[in-house]
Amino acid sequence: xxxxxxxxxxxxxxxxxxxxxxxxxxxxxxxxxxxxxxxxxxxxxxxxxxxxxxxxxxxxxxxxxxxxxxxxxxxxxxxxxxxxxxxxxxxxxxxxxxxxxxxxxxxxxxxxxxxxxxxxxxxxxxxxxxxxxxxxxxxxxxxxxxxxxx
Length: 150
What we know:
The protein has one helix spanning 6-31, and strands spanning 36-49, 52-58, 64-70, 89-94, 101-107, 110-119, 127-128. The protein has 150 residues and is α/β, with parallel strands linked by helices. The protein starts with 5 loop residues before the first helix and ends in a 22-residue tail after the last strand.
């Protein structure tokens, strides 16, 4: 037979409160799990055009691929939002050895949105100069999802 002292009862009450809090928090976190799948890819070059950004990134095999990200995707004031009302593209400026890179998100197997993590210094070699001879305007279709190659 175990007899608990007053200090033992206080400890047991505290332990019970911590256990209940932990279980409740675990249940809350599991209820809000994300259904998003993400992939990050290093960017070789990002070029700013009047209609958006051309992003040249490295595939898993080291090949270069390009996507065209329309400016409309960066703003809430248009009809090109995600299915849950968020912007389809975000840009994050910073510095460091991990910059620049591209983060792509899918929800239920379909493209959801992307984030561009770019070097905040436009003089960095990751920033390119727009080729005005290139017919870029036709490639920035906000109604069309990017065709990612990995």
